[in-house]
Amino acid sequence: MSLKVNDPSVSERSPASERKKSMRKICVNILKVLVSVALLYFVFRKIPFHDIAKTWSGVNVGYVIAGAVFFLVSQVLSAKRLEFYLKANNFDLDFKNNVKLYFLGMFYNFFIPGGIGGDAYKIYILNQKFSWNARQLTSSIFNDRLNGLLAIGVLMLIFIMFLIPVQWIPGAIIFILAGVLLVFLIIKKLFPVYQPILLKTLFISVLIQGLQSICFLFLLESLDVSGNFTIYLIIFLGSSVLSLLSFAGIGIREFLFLQASKYFDFHVSVSVSTSLLFTAVTAFFSILGLLFMFGKNDVKECSI
After folding, report:
1. What spatial distance separates the first Cα and last Cα of the chain, rounded to whole Å?
2. In this structure, how many other beta carbons lie within 10 angstroms of the beta carbon of residue 95?
3. What is the pLDDT of residues 164-187, one digit of tens each?
4. Which domain holds residue 167?
5. Extended strands (E) in 23-165
6. How far apart are CA 29 and CA 247, in angstroms?
């Protein structure tokens, strides 16, 4: 069975409340784009783009390809994590089509600013095709994202343990356990259906962020960076959280590395160049969503 995938932004007119909600989402996304533009403008005022182009001219393509492979695996695992959340609500979507839908969402997130978001796109498609409850779908995707944020926090604290005095490490471990316990209690209270899969999906999420961190390390290696890897990774992971404030994280990562260069010993143009390389890798794989959207005859059709 196949489904015509028409752009939800031009679907049948919604009630007034829905239109207001949609307009609010569009305004938020436009604001994120403006934040990205403003931050990039600030960064490029401090670091001329020709400096970044000069840095890129010496890039080791082999390391970039290796990093891209790790990034791709992390995205496939992300689709698998979402599959667990869907199945918790008895939504049975096979892995192949879940991956296809995940990359479609990536495409919407990266290339259609101000329009429907990738997560909303997934909800729309699954609701339209299978008549699955939109509230439960939203709950699945929200908890999937929450699990990812928890993993970022855990991994950041693990990396921080390599930098702090030994006597502080037990406190960091207690902080990690307390954070996981707090999220567990919140899930148990508000979303009990996901309680049985919390630890399993958290492990997957840590693995996902670990793979993306390895990707970033390979990108650093591609520009012949040596040393300070722990600091780089902490800033990289922190930017993943703050990326919610900008469009696809663009501008946030570059700005954070620019500011961090004032306090840590690394070359600012190289760190910003690496961040932009990561954005390029993300954009490349987001295009896969476009390939899934258009069939051989350029028909907008998604067989799921």
Report:
1. 7
2. 11
3. 999 999 999 999 999 999 999 999
4. 3-302
5. none
6. 7
Domain total for the chain?
1
User: 284-296 in b/e burial notation, b at 16+ Cβ within 10 A?
Assistant: ebbebbeebbeee
Enter the tokens of residue 263: 């306090």
Burial class of 44 by CB neighbour count within 10 A (0 to 12, 13 to 18, 19+): middle
- Mean pLDDT along residues 90-109: 88
Q: Which of 62-66, 177-181, 199-203, 253-257 has the lowest mean pLDDT?
A: 253-257
Contact 135, 213 (CB under 8 A): no
Q: How many residues does the chain have?
A: 304
Residue type, 132: W
- Output the CA angle 76-103-116, nearest 5 degrees: 140
Q: Tokens representing 86?
A: 């869907």
Show Cβ contacts of residue 243 under 8 Å, excluding neighbours closer than 6 positions.
Answer: 249, 252, 253
Residues 6+ apart with CB under 8 A from 82: 98, 102, 140, 141, 144
CA distance 41 to 35: 10
Q: 223-256: per-residue pLDDT in tens?
A: 988 777 899 999 999 988 887 777 767 788 888 8
- Sequence letter at residue 213: S
- The span from the CA of 41 to the CA of 23, in Å, is 27
- Integer Cα distance of 237 and 215 in angstroms: 12
Among candidates 67, 75, 103, which has minimal Cα distance to 205? 75
Please list, in sequence order, all residues whose beta carbon lies within 8 angstroms of the beta carbon of residue 302, skipping any fewer than 6 positions away: 2, 3, 5, 100, 101, 104, 125, 292, 293
